[in-house]
Write a structure and sequence with these properties.
657 residues, alpha+beta, Rossmann fold, Jelly Rolls, 13-stranded mixed β-sheet, 14 helices, 30 strands, globular, disordered N terminus
Length: 657
Amino acid sequence: MVAAYRFVLLAVTMLVATASSGESAPAVSGLSTVAAGVGEYRRHEPFVYRQAIRRSVYVTMRDGVRLAVDYYLPARDGKVKRGRFPVVLEYTRYGRSAPLPGGGTKHRQYSATDAQGLMSIADDPIRSELLLAYGYALVVADMRGSGASFGPSHAEGEDIEGKDGFDLVAWIARQAWSDGTVGMLGSSYLAEVQPRVAAERPPALKALSMVYGFFDGPNSAYSMGGIFRDGWQGGWVQNVAKLDNRSTDPNAPITNISAVDADRDQVQLRKAIDEHREGVDDEYFQHLDAFKTAGVVRDVLPFIDHYQLKGQNNLYTVLDRVNAGGVPTLLSGGWHDIYANDMLLWYANLTVPRKLIYGPYPHGKSGPAPNDPRDIERERLVARETLRWFDRWLRKMPNDAEQRPAVQFGLQRDPRHTEWFASDTWPPRQANYRDLYLSGKVSNTIVSQYDGSLSWEPEANSSRQPWRVDYSASVGSTGTRWGGLVHDVPVTVNDTKSLTYTSPPLAEDLYVAGIPVVKLWLSSENAPDADVHAYLNVVSEDGTSRLISDGMLRASHRTLGRPPYLNFGLPFPSSNSTDIAATPPLSATPVALEFTMLAVGRVFHRGDRLRLTIAGADRGNTLGLERDPAPKLAIHVGAATRSALSLRVLGEKGHVP
């Protein structure tokens, strides 16, 4: 194993990141994150500004709809610093700010302002507040149909989002406090709207910083392998309705949305909220409802692969226009995020100047306890690397943003330590697929429907492990990957309701970085179709099984097709109606199912066991095929039916312990 990592060091710079506690991770190359500069840009330079002033106005779009905008300008001694600043735009669906009882406002991520609009910049600010400290102006705009902006609520990704964004960027460039250059920053929806704006080619837009945005939603966020992920939908729908006040008493006090400065009696705010209600929920979320009624069938639901002016648009459909615009883009992703594969796909398909940063981070918080070291590390990395990126592309500063490695990725060793690597490609040339073969040999690690084994060597003899689908199987709310505590959660109970295949204890640490692939040979006694859920778990010495990744495929969607974008050559279920209709029903003759899981970046420890768990349902998270009686299925292993889990392993030719 040592020889393997010497080989990696020749072509891949290995960096060791430590948590904020200052403790050191096990050394790989001897370089610290400070020496390598990951997330440390200008860290030892004093802030240029320690204050900012907030003001708010309505900005009129080309069709007359007015959007509510907060803008923050760097200040000293309680007064705005005169001059022209590069500007960061956050274009949000989740509320630009909320009023405080004593006056002033609070952005959900940044320091509060007082009744006069004065903000004292925090000592360790995150994201755009950090940029304010170094002399950028900040604009936060409520998307139409949300917050204090006018207009009815509209479908996520509707064409109007990009057009409004174009008008906002043009307005910013005309302001006396703007130097005419604009960058966009944001996470989740605030990331996803950035390419929609870039596709409109606003001249003043000079850089993007996207954190956790989907690429092909029907193949990640909304579904995988033809199975609709409905578990997250209800919570998200309720959340945005509450944020827009569409779901509350029209006469109730408005405490969650800031009125603009000229609307202190909230008359305009109430009119805006009335217009939000004109966007009927059934229409607003019709694209998600279509998944329930039509299924995840790409050629039946036009918004998946064809851009449209009204309604939902899958994000990759603007890719060609984004590339034509050429806006330099910084991509930040998380191994624990629902979009773990998507940000890798953005990197593969963008031809604009771009960099990619990946770490052991979820969509929300890493755990229930505050100040998780991974959350602190993530916020620092995003803020500092965005500052580096915007300094280069907005300010034209001669820094090293372009010369730095194309990809920097951190593998979690434990919750307090991340080991950082750098590569000029993704996937790294030293990350090779290695197969862990499913075996009928009993592992004696769990009482499940069948307690099989995983082995680095294929089994010579074939065998068949039957199981009856248990519809109560579920990994719980963690399966949505939204919110906190989504990684390394115990799933032993789910394992007992499923088929399990468990490896012997690892003899040495195993470095995994990339998208796993599952190939299963499946047969059925009584069901023509079935859902197959695969979970990669790590089993500690005390027998606790913890969730690392998951993937899924409906058997009738098993025909593979050519993806409409670059996808690293991974299996891509066509989910085309013609292919689905032509796919034979399941029978006693085994057929191959091949599908991806969500990307994994992790150091598995010596002594850990890896487990592949196979279930037929994930109650509460997906809209499954439920039949009575429940399907009697079987996994076939060995000989000509080599079912396997493929992992990208860092090391010489994928060397494994």
